């Protein structure tokens, strides 16, 4: 009875959370006559799959897709490389003021992005990077406090004896990091990669502030262009939104096991 009750509650909550996605897909497949019916019609009488094609062709979404993929892939690489290097330094190196610098690094997590938005814009404007994808890519190559914290916690769970054995065999610090630590960090690297993918793919405020030319727009900005003089093309919005949601969902379900493992392993020690 208890197990049946648990399954019932899980199913009910699953339906509750899946309802908006179901409504999004069915709205994208409706005809214009069924769009504003009241009471609303959940399942359309005829599925109009051509709504997806029309919505995608209504704007240069192939350009937006290329920009989103460029920003997402480059920011993922930047965060994985820079954050892992800094995390390894905090986890293994001993230097004066290390604890203070780590606490200072964690303290920056309490500063909201809205506070640094104007200074960042002024700095990028001085560098001549406004209306360029550099404004979205370059900051990720300097690490993120949260990702550094996760990686540091994971590295501290790796036994020091492994590094000492590698050092006895003649390996230097760089070889130990690239050939020993990085392969062992696979779960947390996948976790950070998924988090960064979601952050970059769904980012709207950053591109809205730093990008002006439509040829540099990302998918999130392109989605905001479904605005007409008298209203919003809801079928187009839902169709493009459903297409934009597919890559994050695929990445999440593919890496779900590693995400759970990475989160669990980062809290074992530290």
Automatic annotation (TrEMBL):
The keyword Repressor does not apply. Its main location: membrane. Belongs to the binding-protein-dependent transport system permease family. SUPFAM superfamilies: MetI-like (SSF161098). Keywords: Cell membrane, Membrane, Transmembrane, Transmembrane helix, Transport. This is Sn-glycerol-3-phosphate transport system permease protein UgpE. It comes from the Bacteria. InterPro entries: MetI-like, MetI-like_sf. Coiled coil: none annotated. It is a multi-pass membrane protein. PANTHER family: ABC TRANSPORTER PERMEASE PROTEIN MG189-RELATED-RELATED, SN-GLYCEROL-3-PHOSPHATE TRANSPORT SYSTEM PERMEASE PROTEIN UGPE. It is found in: Cell membrane.
């Amino acid at each position: 009875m208890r197990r049946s009750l648990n399954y019932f509650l899980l199913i009910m909550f699953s339906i509750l959370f899946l309802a908006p996605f179901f409504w999004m897909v069915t709205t994208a497949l409706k005809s214009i006559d069924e769009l504003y019916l009241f009471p609303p019609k959940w399942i359309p009488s005829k599925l109009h799959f051509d709504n997806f094609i029309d919505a995608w062709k209504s704007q240069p979404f192939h350009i937006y897709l290329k920009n989103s993929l460029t920003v997402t892939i480059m920011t993922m690489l930047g965060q994985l490389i820079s954050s892992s290097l800094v995390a390894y330094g905090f986890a293994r190196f001993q230097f004066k003021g290390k604890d203070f610098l780590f606490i200072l690094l964690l303290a920056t997590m309490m500063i909201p992005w809205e506070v640094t938005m104007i200074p960042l814009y002024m700095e990028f404007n001085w560098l001549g990077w406004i209306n360029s994808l550099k404004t979205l890519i370059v900051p990720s190559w300097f690490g993120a406090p949260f990702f550094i914290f996760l990686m540091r916690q994971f590295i501290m769970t790796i036994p020091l004896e492994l590094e000492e054995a590698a050092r006895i065999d003649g390996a230097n610090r760089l070889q130990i990091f690239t050939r020993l630590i990085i392969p062992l960090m696979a779960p947390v690297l996948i976790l950070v990669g998924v988090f960064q993918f979601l952050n970059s793919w769904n980012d709207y405020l950053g591109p809205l502030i730093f990008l002006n030319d439509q040829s540099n727009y990302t998918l999130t900005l392109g989605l905001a262009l479904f605005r007409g003089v008298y209203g919003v093309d809801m079928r187009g919005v839902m169709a493009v939104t459903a297409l934009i949601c597919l890559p994050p969902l695929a990445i999440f379900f593919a890496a779900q096991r590693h995400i759970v493992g990475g989160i669990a392993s980062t809290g074992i020690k530290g």
